């Protein structure tokens, strides 16, 4: 059966798309050089700039740029499952689930659940990401990468009149999926021995499902920070009706990848600013009675917080641990920090419970609460109380609350085992809580 002749209109449209992309990358570079040229007075330096400009014009000719891009594509790889989330120095394989994902049990959530509509990630040299952006260009709703993988004759004709050269470029561009590379693990990758019924083992090398994670992150971000969510939250505060509701995801944890250079892990990791939000996996806590505001007390660091069963148990365990410790090392410091971190988590839970109360409860005449604690525990009062709002946004209350927490914890430890807790311990407890309070204020700022 004879092949249909190439669609010349389609070829011209793709060619124009490619040329527009290359020109868009060239223009700001030329403008920058032209500004330098206008400011430069020395003839030698002006000549050097003009030579650099001529070289740019040569490098950004269509076929020259494509030749260079086809070489640089080897520096990046398109992936759906990335290795560098496990360890930044891991040198093993990342994987790309192509257009035909494996048949799996649909009862399990995985990258296959996204179907063909999924974000694709890129790992490798960040300086070569322009090649990936080129392959993501769309014509008639289909990215160039799809045409590359299909060895589309119109794309080949659009890239160059020399079909042999264009076909070679397409083959190189197709290698961005890494499907032609051997698969290998690495000593810094995760490796698990999974037992089999015959007494043997499968060696599993789990990879980070970056496409799935990015999809979940996008949905969570939309649910937390979209304009519709803000509108619904404001309507709830004002006691008004709203045509739609909103979702809450309490107790999210943030996992950070890549430090100050998230782009070194992957492109999607950079778009998430290195953050991965983790949903809580612990069972819900049963509350047997309605939350009551802490009225007629000057501080919650007493019976309101200290009498909670989990808090009482944690302070006892911490006191017993410190009393049985005669020396100091990294394991002891780590255990002590973990116990205090659990106390800080309980403080977060305590504050979250009081957040269910109507805004402004701390303005009641019978509320004797210390001002710093009122600012901490009744933040939504700032919406209707300008004086309260100015004090809240000043942020000084965090230092005072952390100070009071340190005093309370020192008192509790002295009470349980007569431990000699002094200013040094107070400063440490206070510092640990300061981080927690910063988390609280950051979360409230999203509301």
Core attributes:
mainly alpha, two-stranded antiparallel ribbon
Write structural notes for this entry.
It contains 17 helices and 8 strands. It is elongated and about 85 Å long. Helix 12 (309-323) packs antiparallel against helix 13 (330-354), helix 12 packs across helix 16 (396-417) and helix 16 (396-417) packs across helix 17. The strands form 4 sheets. A two-stranded antiparallel sheet has the order 1-2. The chain has 447 residues and is mostly helical. It has helices at residues 8-39, 43-59, 62-72, 129-135, 144-149, 153-159, 163-174, 210-225, 227-238, 267-271, 303-306, 309-323, 330-354, 371-377, 386-394, 396-417, 423-445; strands at residues 76-79, 121-124, 138-139, 142-143, 192-195, 201-204, 253-256, 275-278.
Helicity, in percent?
40-55%
Tell me, briefly, the overall form: elongated
Spans of 5+ residues with little confidence (pLDDT < 50)? Answer: 443-447
The first-to-last residue Cα distance is 63 Å
Helix count equals 17
Taking all Cα atoms into account, the compactness measure Rg is: 30 Å
| Major sheet details | 2 strands, antiparallel
Give the DSSP E fraction (strand runs of 2 or more residues). Answer: 5-15%
Number of strands: 8
Q: Residue-averaged pLDDT, rounded?
A: 81
Structural class: mainly alpha
Instruction: Give me the side-by-side strand order of the main sheet.
Output: 1-2
What are the secondary-structure elements, in order, as H or E?
HHHEEHEEHHHEEHHEHEHHHHHHH
Q: What would you call the quaternary organization?
A: single chain
